[in-house]
Task: structure prediction
Amino acid sequence: MPALLLLALWLAPPPIRPESQAETPAMRRAESLSESTAAAPKGWLTHAEETAFEHTGRYREALAFYRRLAAASPLARLTQIGETAQGRPLFALVVSKDRAFTAQAARKTGKPVVLLQNGIHAGENGGKDAAMMLLRDVLVTRRHAAWLDHLILISIPVFNADGHERISPYNRINENGPAEMGFRVTANRLNLNRDYIKSDTPEMRAWLKLYAAWLPDLLIDNHVTDGSDNQYDVTISVHTEQDIAPEPGGWTKRAYVPELEKRMAALGHVMGWYISFSRGAETIPIQAFSPRYSTGYAAARNRAALLVETHSLKSFKTRVWSHYDIMRVTLDIIAGSPRDLRNASLAADRAARALQPGSMVFLEGAPGSESEPYTLRLLEAERYTGAASGGPIVRYTARPLDQPVRIVRSMTPKLELSAPAGYIVPREWREVIALLQTHGVRTELLPEAIEADFDTWRIDDVRFSPRPFEGRFPATSFKARPVRERRAIAAGSVWVPTGQQAGKVAMHILEPEAPDSALRWGFFQPVFEQKEYFSDYVFEPYAKAMLDADPTLKAEFDQALAASPEFANSPRARLEWLYRRSPYYESDKDAYPVVKAMARPF
Ligand SMILES: [Zn+2]
Result:
């Protein structure tokens, strides 16, 4: 056999079905999906529908479909929002009965805005195809056109378009169809769902511009999870505790999720929380996402969000059905009482703008002590000895295993801080100023240089990740020591007031201890580098003079020598100790460059 053909056979996907194939009759029927397909006029089927959900289309199919939607209805407009690292255009389709195609016009309608986001992880298929069908239902067959009386829709066809086109049957071993798929990360190998705060990618910067302008009342972020095989066709995550403003959190917890659970169950979905399904655990916390993630970011912007995670081992068609229904049911719920969601956003924004210095702001939580009963809907598993691994390997059966556990939805503060009136970011930290502006944080230019005493921090014992994480070497641990210090700040630096819509995002970026702070992500790295050094023969006479002149210093030095023979026996360490206390030492090393103030300082 020719070598190439041998290679092709060797690489061909094996006819292996490791999944349980546990699907209920409702999942196999996928009724609402079939109804949407049946109602579509000729020429309006997606590539997924045309291939009986064996394949998903390429990016050009999605764009062509969206272009046709915009051409077919005066109620839709397709807008380019930016471009990917490889230069592909990124689009958002705005759908509005009032033809409110700008954020400003949308606000005047008083209607809530719902953002559908697809393909942030482009190997995770389902959301993109379901959104296309749903938009066809609104704009072409008009089966769901009534939603537009009560809400405005925005849809991003594929967020990670470069990843979507890095197509292969081998991109995601855990995913049960379509036949080929895109890849998780961008062309620069960056994960967009870790990029919401640091915004290193052009894709995220485009998204933030859209989001900051529109501030959609609800974000639906469509994903596909893997992990253990289980009964769920869809799992969800939402923010409802102290990590989100009480109004959108309360709407999510009391109005939205209970109704979503009820309606999804009635349609035959097995929906649960997106949590760790570890079989040994008795109490499982619901994960709280920091603002590097989509839903955590929305929460920091006072907005509700739904993380949708369908399951990779369900068939591709089942997954499209789950995405389709969870979006459809959500839009039905919102259209039923649109003011509730819109008012929640407005109330949260009013509170954000009225934030008083000294108010406590919750930036990070840990699982609380309260728990509640919950049933995990797992599958019975068997173990066998793998011939390849030699170890015990799990094989899931299609037999349901309902396991009672307790889940923790409550949260206890891990980082809760008193808000200053604002921060000053010195002009020279331009990347940080640009980052704040990318997020739509309002800043004011300092008209003149200021030299004054400010509250700020010294950063002690900083450690960095030894390996890159999302293209950076983040600070993994440090101590932020509050200090009051004299600082000289250049004219043209910026004042960042906390009392604004994006105030909490500003605090997440500028409070050094916040989980996704600019400091942790490495925006201030040079602060930790010493730039000038001494020669011992030059400093020795100076050091002796320091000790002779200052008895208190001498006493401290003697104490340090007595405490550590190692120190006492190291000439360099002894001189280093004294150098750090001399006026030659660089006072701005380890000094956090940002300062805060309890009143506007100019
Ligand atoms: Zn994902």
User: Anything to note?
Assistant: The first helix runs from residue 3 to 11. The pocket of zinc ion is lined by residues 121, 124, 223 (CB under 6 Å). Residues 113 and 373 are 34 Å apart (CA to CA).
